[in-house]
Amino acid sequence: MRVLVTGGAGYIGSHTVLQLLGAGHDVVVVDDFSNSRPAVVGRLEELGGRPVPLLAFDVNDTDRLAATMSDEGVEAVVHFAAFKAVGESVAKPLEYYRNNVGATMSVLEAMLRTEVAHLVFSSSATVYGPDAPVPMTEDLPTSATNPYGWTKVFSEQLLRDATVAHPWLRVALLRYFNPVGAHPSGRIGEDPADVPNNLMPYIAQVAVGRRERLAVFGDDYDTVDGTGVRDYIHVEDLAAGHLAALEWIQEHDRALSVWNLGTGHGTSVLELVHAFEEASGRPVPYDVVARRAGDVASSWADPTRAEQELGWSASRTVAQMCEDTWRWQQANPEGYPAV
Ligand code: UFG
Questions:
Q1: Does the predicted TM-score (pTM) go above 0.90?
Q2: Residue 338's pLDDT is what?
Q3: Which of 160, 288, 316, 331 is spaced 20 to 30 Å from 325 by Cα?
């Protein structure tokens, strides 16, 4: 299959590109490097053993996207390209709606023009909103507490409506829990442009000495040790979930599918800190500070639907997530080179 991957130079996108290549698919990446580095491409080619065609433009350019899809003979799209920082989305809502919802509209319109039916969309567990019970199942109502979350809710709704109007579409909405880890080679991984917002890259930067101490946002939640509990999923398992979903929608006649991609297990902030200390042999000093606005106590998936329908489940442990993150962080303490 010839697959167009938007945001294929980003964290989850790059790991998925590599697995698509490994499964024998041809890949065309579209990425404007707004939150990724051109150096990723060379590493993908080195690991994948073949050229990775990359076109650097904004997917909101619908004409260029549609032209690329017809010129390249694209048969399916995996759409990652989006902004993803919750706090920034509160400060810049218009940018988030324009970039994220706009990009989904643009991808959809280009698919309709060129009659490409298959789309795997990068959604998030954030669409379950702040009051969802755990474990979270796909049929819970959707909601959000910040513009980033709403862009995922609205994009999902847009895609849902499109499958009603164009029932030949085959769309998968993948709701990720907390992706962490890196390719076992240590050559590709997560490279936050600024101070990390998320826990795992922050821990990794403390362990490697790039930051002094971790701030733990609250230890008075109703959880195992009072710190927030999340469903961390290895990015390699997550990438494998995209392949499984892509193959499933090729083979089945259901216009819209929704799958959680998580492990079904929760890990607290302090459990992750200790697992990372174990994996790295480095201390991760921390201070407990106030809760972060908008955080929930616990979030983890019910991954049963993906297991039953896709035959996919996450197999990598929290220890492996930490080991692989550490290998990447040690080999690339400042992230990708700027060239
Ligand atoms: N945390 C800290 N210190 C930090 C960063 C995080 O203690 O420096 C804690 C948080 O309070 C939370 C846990 O670590 O308990 C995980 O926080 P992350 O920011 O890594 O992940 P979130 O679960 O908050 O966010 C993730 C995605 C978002 C998405 C959200 C929806 O990163 O894109 O899930 O729940 F919107």
A1: yes
A2: 87
A3: 288
Averaged pLDDT in 10-residue chunks for the chain of 339 residues: 98 98 98 96 97 98 98 98 96 98 98 98 97 98 97 98 98 98 98 94 97 98 98 99 98 98 98 98 98 94 98 98 98 92
Catalytic residue among 128, 148, 176, 202: 148
Q: 148 catalytic, yes or no? A: yes
CB-count burial class (<10 Å; 0-12, 13-18, 19+) for 62: middle
Which atom of ligand 1 is the closest one to the Cα of 200?
20
Which CATH code is given to the segment(s) 2-179+232-262+301-314? 3.40.50.720
- Tokens for 24? 């024998």
Which residues, judged by CB distance below 6 Å to any ligand atom, belong to the binding site of ligand 1?
84, 86, 124-126, 148-149, 178, 197-199, 202, 214-217, 228, 230, 269, 292, 295, 299
Parallel/antiparallel/unpaired status of strands 232-234 and 178-180: parallel
- Would you put residue 207 in left (φ > 0), alpha (ψ -120 to 50) or beta? alpha
